[in-house]
Amino acid sequence: MRTVLLGLALVVLGGVAIATGLLPAAQALAVGERVWPILLFVTAITIVTELAAEAGLFAAVAQAMSRGGLHRAIVLWLLVVVLATVSTIFLSLDTTAVLITPVVVSVARHVGLPPLPFALTTVWLANTASLLLPVSNLTNLLAAGPVAGDSPLRFAALMLAPAVVAIVVPTVVLFVVFRRQLAGRYEAGQRTAPVDRVLFVASAVVIVVLLPALVSGVPVWIPAVIAAVILVGLFTVRKRSTLRISLIPWQLVLLACGLFLVIATASDLGLARALGTVASPGQGFSSLLRLAGTGAVASNAVNNLPAYLALEPVAGSPLRLAALLIGTNAGPLITPWASLATLLWHDRLKGLGVETPWSRYLVLGLIVVPITVVAAVASLAIVG
């Protein structure tokens, strides 16, 4: 509900800015032209993953993980690391927060292990593993053109080293923090079959075909929309009751639209120039680190999406934009509002009855964020 109210308030502010001339209509149209494919992709991929979950695909993944963990908690946890990483890279961080979180919590409870290490692993990697591909994060989709000319492979080539670092460092920290809880053994539970095998198989095939299509160079909204249409058609025939308005992430779309308009207005009023004095120019390690650090601080102070939008004009080159993405993607692990994925993750945990003290989340974030950002920027400076 708070997300809806915030989104409405930002959209109203954006409308007022356009009406009063603070944001010229031509500038607002340019923003809309840039972001509509991104929001369409987010909507389509959310529908695809929600329907795949309804078909039992993610539950089957959870069962396979519990069997593949070899009755050892550490092995099961490493499988969660892989699942969260792959889901984030190919299906976006919000998908990981919304759909993978209940999967890993259910797996942990099913085998009698504490759910918090698995849940925290999911949200950390939902943020930090989102550096590799344009589809991994909304900020990446915004940066894809300036960074790599909309080529997913060129984008991945530049971001590979920092992406690996941003996955490995938080994973190591999590292992150190939860090593005692991950030292035990467990018994795998009973296997259950999907209710509708046709929907299950169809969803699996759609996801398998969709993943390479997202990195083929075709605008990502096209395969995502095709996949969504196929699954909606199948569910219309076999399970119409599943098709509901809540499948559309309208809260996220509303919030994003409001943020785009407000940040565009603020940039026109001089926000970009002010931030340019904080994020120093240059392509060396210290300059890149200062830009990434500014992005990380701004993300935790406000949110990573407006932080990226505000700082994008002062980046000015693919290498500096990559550093900014490190700050806005791997940095939002301190405050609960730093990324929408974290808010979605916490909402899911509340529904599952899992306690997550924000004080502990903040302390752990203060430890891992500086290490991750510095190490990722160092790797970028070396290979860039």
In short:
Helices cover 76% and strands 0% of the residues. It is mainly alpha-helical and 384 residues long.
SSE blueprint and pairings:
Elements lengths: L1 H19 L4 H30 L2 H12 L4 H19 L1 H18 L5 H13 L9 H11 L3 H27 L18 H17 L7 H18 L11 H19 L2 H8 L6 H17 L2 H12 L2 H13 L9 H13 L5 H26 L1
Helix pairs in contact: 1-11, 2-9, 2-10, 2-11, 3-5, 4-5, 4-6, 5-6, 5-16, 6-8, 6-16, 7-14, 7-15, 8-15, 8-17, 9-10, 11-14, 12-14, 13-14, 13-15, 13-17, 14-15, 15-17
Summed up, the helix count is 17
Which descriptor suits the 3D outline?
globular
Query: What integer is the average pLDDT?
Result: 88
Low-confidence stretches: none
Broad structural category? mainly alpha
Structure summary, number of beta strands: 0
Largest sheet, if any?
A: none
Radius of gyration in whole Å, from Cα?
Answer: 20 Å
Distance from first to last alpha carbon: 42 Å
Helix content: over 70%
Q: How much of the polypeptide forms β-strand, as a percent range?
A: under 5%
What is the H/E string? HHHHHHHHHHHHHHHHH
Features:
single chain, 17 helices, 76% helix, 384 residues, mainly alpha
Structural account:
The model has no long low-confidence stretch (mean pLDDT 88). Helix 14 packs antiparallel against helix 15 and helix 15 runs antiparallel to helix 17. 76% of the residues lie in helices and 0% in strands. The chain contains 17 helices and no strands. By secondary structure, it is mostly helical. The longest helix has 30 residues.
